[in-house]
Amino acid sequence: IPLFFNKTFQPAEELITWQAVGDAFKVLCLVFGFLIVLKEKLKIYLLFELLLFSSMVFFSYVLIPKYGTIGANYAYTLSYVLSFISGLFFMRYYLKNGHKL
Could you read off the pLDDT of 51-72 as tens digits, one per residue? Predict the structure, then answer.
């Protein structure tokens, strides 16, 4: 932030950090999403999207009252981390049962 903005943006540094971490996991989740769609597993893809949405709502209800604005970023990041871990387990199960990518 100091590289691009003046000191008035300094309080947003923590927000941007957690947003960037969440975005990194979002990109990783997109890879799993593309693989699932390519394998024509639409029901599984929709299940992952439902998991992502419900976890984001749950974490938001829990973390925003406790942490305020940064709680929304925590919820965003945690949701995508959970989705990424779920994707890893799915891929492990999928590949372990003899399916090819």
Answer: 999 999 999 999 999 999 999 9
